[in-house]
Amino acid sequence: MTVGASDVDQARLRRFLPAYLPSLVAFLNRSFTGHRHYAPITEADFAERVLVQRGFDPGGLILGMQEGQVVGAVHAIKPPASLPANRSAEARHHIVWLAVAPEARQQRLGTRLLSAAENYLYYCPVYFAADNAPFYGIQERLWAPWYGSTESMAISAVNDRELVAWLNKRGYQVSNPGDVTLAASLHDRERPEDPGLEARGLRLVMIDERSPWPGDEPVYQLRAWGENAGRRYQGLVVADGNRAVGSIVWYPMPDPTIAALAWIGLERQYRGLRFGSFLLDRALAEMANRGYISVEVHAHSKDNAEAFSLFKRRGFSVIDYWVNLVKT
Questions:
Q1: pLDDT single digits (tens) 226-241
Q2: In the sheet that 258-266 helps form, which strands lie side by side, from edge to edge?
Q3: Which of 269, 35, 56, 39 is CA-nearest to residue 149?
Q4: What is 12-177's CATH number?
Q5: Where are the domains of the chain?
Q6: Phi and psi at residue 180, in whole multiples of 5°?
């Protein structure tokens, strides 16, 4: 189905079809190489991450095709009806990524792809590279995004300035700045002493994809992750009987020496008792014991100021800044 340019010398815009998958994956591997944490993907990877997920619409995955090969692509996503562990109560329209091969940039292919994506969404606001976009982050499953932060494919304020400037000219502005990645060494991390969990009738439970949390979890995402389709993760749960009142979860990045901290949470009534810092310290010690050399975490320095401050006190340093953009 042709949805764009008709000039035979230009790349034609087409919606995704399964026959285009090999060329699309080859294009993505060329385009994304060099981004933080990127490792080459396979056709099976793309199918598992995107094609078989609930809410995927091939009409929003728009390809620039030239001589039978993908030379540019954009993925626009309308709000799926339901997604597990969706962290946003707001139904958003997303453009997750846009890429164009260098040889096709003189055709204004990027502009044409962006326009086609916006026409498909037919809605404003449009969020570009937002941290709660479906399919490419950790909403559906605990796995490392293909590049960017530990939680989502993201635009770096440090390394992607050209793309940010290009989007600014087309009406996209930075929204809610403060998303960062922090990292810390796991050298000399020792198990901390119990600050009083047992005295309050609480216990600490180890979980992973083989032994997920089986109890109640009123405000966390433990049940949604569950067995995680066999993909590795580990965690600790602060349990009050059969009820989770706190938890921390981590999983491996493409470099198996780096752990990604996905979540830390504690019910408010247990805060101020050193339980949160204990939970983090114990998790860092467990990561070190399992062979990880360093750990990274995505946080918002303003919206998650309490957690951000805790990470800084535990030796984490900011290593990248991420840009969320929106067109209203």
A1: 999 999 999 999 999 9
A2: 155-156, 317-323, 179-185, 294-300, 258-266, 243-252, 234-240, 203-208
A3: 35
A4: 3.40.630.30
A5: 12-177, 187-292
A6: -140, 160
